[in-house]
Amino acid sequence: MTGVIARLRARLTKGERDRGSISLFVVTAMVAVLAVLALVADGAGKLSALNHAQATAQEAARIGADSVSAGAAISGDGITVDRGAAQRAATAYLAQAGVTGSVSFDNTGSIVVDTTQTYTPVLLPLGGGAVTGHASAKLIVQGG
C-alpha cells in the first residue's frame, strides 16, 4: 500500500514546477484584452470626431447655399446665391459648431466647405490629431 501512496504523492508533486504559470498567462491575456478594448474605444472616438467634422461641413455648405440674393430675386433677375452672405452664414455656422474651416466657391458656383477638428485619444496616446470634413452644395432652382 505504501508503494501506491508513494507513486500518488510523486504524481501530485511532479507538477510543482508549473506552479504560477497560469497566473502569468492570465496577466498577459488581460493586458492584451485591455489593449484591444482601448483601441476600439479610441477608434470609435476618432470615427465620431470624423463624422462630426463631415456633418458640420455638409450643414455649413447647405446653409450657405440657402443664402439667396433677395435683390436679384425681387427684381426678377433670377434666383442666385449671394456669395458674401453665403460665406458669412457658413462661417458663422462653423464658429457656432466649434469647428475650424474654410469656405470658398468653385468654378461651377457651388459653395465648398472644408473643416478641421482635433481629436485627442482618451485611453491610448496613439492616433490623435486632426480629422477633416469636406462638403459642397449648389442652389438648384426649380420652376413651377
List keywords for this structure.
144 residues; transmembrane; transmembrane helix; single chain; 3 strands; alpha+beta; membrane; Putative Flp pilus-assembly TadG-like N-terminal domain-containing protein; 4 helices
Describe this structure in words.
This protein has 144 residues and is α+β, with helices and mostly antiparallel strands. The chain has one domain. Helix content is 55%, strand content 17%. The protein contains 4 helices and 3 strands. The protein has helices spanning 2-14, 21-65, 70-75, 83-97; strands at 100-105, 111-119, 129-137. Strand 1 (100-105) and strand 2 (111-119) form a beta hairpin. The chain crosses the membrane at residues 21-41.
Give a short synopsis of this structure.
This protein has 144 residues and is an alpha+beta fold.
Break the fold down into its secondary structure elements and pairings.
Elements: H1 2-14, H2 21-65, H3 70-75, H4 83-97, E1 100-105, E2 111-119, E3 129-137
Domain Putative Flp pilus-assembly TadG-like N-terminal: 20-66
Keywords: Membrane, Transmembrane, Transmembrane helix
Transmembrane segments: 21-41
